[in-house]
Amino acid sequence: MHKALVMEADACTGCHQCEMMCSYGKVGAFNPSKSVIDITIFDGGAVNVPSTCTQCEGAWCMVVCPVEAITVNSSTGAKEVSAEVCVGCKVCTIACPFGAINYDVDSGVVTKCDLCGGEPMCVEACPTTALSFVAEDSTGYDKMRRNAILAAGIEEGIA
Amino acid sequence: MHYVIAGAGPAAVAAAEHIRELDTDSKVTMIGAQAQPPYSRMAIPYFLTGKVEQKGTYLRRSDNHYAEKGIDYLHDEVVSVQPEDHSLSLASGEKIQYDKLLLATGAEPIIPPVPGMDDPRVQQCWHLEDAERIIDLAKPGARAVQVGAGFIGCIILESWVLREVDLTVVEMGPRMVPRMLGEKAGGLLQTWCESKGVSVHTNTQVKAIESTPEELHVVLESGETCPADVVIVSTGVKPRLGYLQGCEIKIDQGIVIDEHMRTTAPDIYAAGDCAQGLDFSTGETAVHAVQPTATEHGRVAAANMVSNNDLPYKGSLNMNILDTLGLVTCSFGAWEGVDGGDSAEMFNQDNFQYINLQFKEDILVGANSVGYHKHLGMLRGLIETKIPLGPWKDRLIANPVQIADAYLGANEASLKSS
Which CATH code, of 1.20.272.10, 3.40.190.10, 3.50.50.60, 3.30.70.1230, is assigned to B2-108+238-307? Predict the structure, then answer.
C-alpha cells in the first residue's frame, strides 16, 4: 500500500517551513524557489494553500516525456525525474495540468516532488496537520486524486 | 488478433505499449524505417548542443525494451497499404497481414522550392543523421544561414551559438515562430536573439541558394545576399503520407480521423503528426504535430483499437513550449483569442516578460507567455477543465501574472467565494 501526501489548506498557517525543508532536501540550501512544494497566500494570510504533485494516476508528465526520464518508484509510487536522462525539453511542464513539474534553470532539468523516497521532509517540517503522509485509501484521498484526473478532462483508461 | 503500427515515433511507441497493457495476448508489430531504435526528435536539439549523446535521444532506455514488452519491432518501411485485404507492403518486399492497423508515420520536413537546395552544404535538421552532419559542418567561426524560424528552427538556435557559429536567420513570416507566438511575444524573442548576436530577417523569403566552391550565397527576396558556409533549412513539416497514394483513405491536411481515431478505411486508425484529429479548442480537426498530441493520440488510438471503439476522445489541446537561447516561450489553445472573448495582457519589454491570456466568458481558452517557466501546466489545467474563473477573471485582467493564484483560487473550495 502506497502512502499519499495529503494537503489540507484549512490547517495551513502559511509559515513556509515545508518549502524551506524541501529545498534543503533537494539542493542543500534553504531556498524556497528551489522547493517543489509551494504555499500560496491569499487575502493577506487568511487562506494559505499548499500545492505539489499528487503523484496522479494520469501521470501526464511521464506519458509525454520523449526520453523516459520520468519513471515510477515501485516502493513509493512516486513519479521520479532522472536528472541524468532529462534533456530539459520542458514538454512535461506544459502537459501536467496541475503545473506540478517545473523547469529549473540552474540544473537544466525539470524538478518535481518525489516524496523524498518515502519520508517527505515537508511533512516532518509542518508544524500543523496541513501536511500528512498517510495510507492512500484511509482518507479517500485516492478517490479524490482520481476525480482530479477526470476533472482534468482525460478519461480514465487513457493515461 | 494482430495489431500493426506503421511508424516508430512517440505516437507509435505510446500506442504499442498501451495496446500491450490492455491486451497481453495479441501480437503487436511496430514498423520503423530509421536505422536506430525509436528515438525522439524532441531530443535532437540537445544532441546538437552536446547535452546528451545519441543514445540520450532514444524514446526508451532499455536496449531490450520492445522485446521485454512483447512488441515486435521491425526495421523496415511501409510502402503501401491495401485496406481491402488488410495488408501492407514493406520496402523489403515483405507483405504483412493486420487485423487492426495504426498509421503513425509522423511528419517530414517541407523543402522549399528554391534553386540550389541540393548542395551538400544545405542541410535539413530532421533525422539523427542530419544532426551528425550539422555537427560536422558547424565549426566555430563558420557562417550559417538558417532558413525558417519556426519551432524547430528556434530550438536549434542554441546549438549554433554554443558552437560559435556566425548565424543569420531568415523567416518568411512577419515574426519568429508566427504559428505559436503573437506579435509582441515574437518581437521579444527576436530582440532577445539579436541581443545574443544572431542576425534575424523576418518578412523575407529565400529566392535562391547559389553555390561556389568556396561558399554559398543565400539570395533573399528583399535583394540582400548572405554569404554562408552552411545553410540549415527548417521551414516546417508536413504529414508523411507518400505511401498512401492510391489508397482509399480520406486525406485533407493529414489523415482525417474521427473521435475514436478511426480513419475512413475499416480497421485503420491514425495518430500523431500524420493525423488530422479533433482539436479541443475549435471542435474542428487539425494537424498539431506536437509531442503532447502525439502521445495522447497514441494512447487513445490504442484504447479504441483494443476496446472496439469504446473511448471517444475530447480532442487535443494544441500547446508548445520553446527554449530559445534561454528565453522560454509557450502557447496554449486559442492564444489568438475567440470571437466575443476578452483578454489580459502583461508586457515587460525590458525584462523580456510577456503574458497574454484569452477568455471566453469567464473560462480561459488560450495563452501565450514569454520569460516564465513556473507552473505553466496550470494554464492547461484551467483551459481543459473549463473551470469558471469567477472573480479570478477580473483579477487576472488586472494582473495576469497571478496564474497560480487563479488556478488554486478557482479550484479550492475555501477560496471560491472570496
Answer: 3.50.50.60
For the A3-151 domain, the top CATH level (class) is: alpha beta
- B296: which chain A residues are within 8 Å (Cβ-Cβ)? 63, 154, 158
Per-residue confidence (pLDDT) for residue B417, from 0 to 100: 52
Contact present, A129 and A8 (Cβ < 8 Å): yes
Go through B189-226 and write b for each residue having 16 or more CB atoms within 10 A of its CB, e for each that does not.
bbebbeeeebebbbeebbbebeeeeeebbbbbeeeeeb
What would the pLDDT profile of A65-86 be if each residue is shown by its tens digit? 999 999 999 999 999 999 999 9
Topology annotation, domain B122-235 = FAD/NAD(P)-binding domain (3.50.50)
Q: Is the ipTM of this complex over 0.85?
A: yes
Q: What is the mean pLDDT of residues B286-304?
A: 96
The band of B160, judged by pLDDT with boundaries at 50, 70 and 90, is confident
Contact status of B410 with chain A (Cβ, < 8 Å): no
A102–chain B Cβ distance below 8 A for any pair: yes
At residue A136, the pLDDT reads 76
Residue with cell 496541475: A98
